[in-house]
Amino acid sequence: MPNWELKHCCKHEQIVFLATLGVCAVVILALWRTVLLLPFKLITVFIHEASHAIACKLTCGHVEGIQVHANEGGTTQTSGGVYWFILPAGLDTPGPLYRVCSLPCCCMDSARNNKDKNSAVHHFVHWCDEQLIFCL
């Protein structure tokens, strides 16, 4: 018979991480419609539109302009390029915000745990590699 008790399921760090994640989710949901998160939302829209522009450039197209609107919308005007590659390039909208926010956490965690100045640089380079692979 399986043991369904949760007495020793998680280490202290895991419980702290899950509690922090829960608190962050509640705070974000509570502040979602406020002006406090607007800059982060606009940065996310910009990164989304920039991903379309990068895909356009990678397929030898021309970016005519990028617009980010105050209503959290945006447009990227392109000409040329491979549209079946450009259009889906922005489909990872939550991804860029996660990737931007994960950088400081990655570097602070590595510096705190390893007490090594080069560790943060190493983790930053590794983080950049992960983002590049994720985008491809």
Structure description:
Pfam families: Peptidase_M50B. Keywords: Membrane, Transmembrane, Transmembrane helix. With about 140 residues, this protein is mostly helical. The protein has one domain (about 35-135). It has five helices and two strands, in the order H-H-E-E-H-H-H. It has helices at about 10-30, 40-60, 85, 95-115, 115-135; strands spanning about 60-70, 75-80. The protein has a two-stranded antiparallel ribbon. The model has no long low-confidence stretch (mean pLDDT about 75).
**Net shape:** elongated
Terminal Cα span = 46 Å
Radius of gyration in whole Å, from Cα? 20 Å
Give the percentage of residues in beta strands: 5-15%
Q: Which strands sit side by side, in order, in the main sheet?
A: 1-2
- Biggest sheet details: 2 strands, antiparallel
Topology, number of strands: 2
Quaternary status: single chain
Structural class, judged by helices and strands? mainly alpha
SSE order, one letter for each helix or strand: HHEEHHH
Mean pLDDT figure: 76
Count of the separate structural domains: 1
Uncertain segments: none
The number of helices is: 5
Helix content: 55-70%
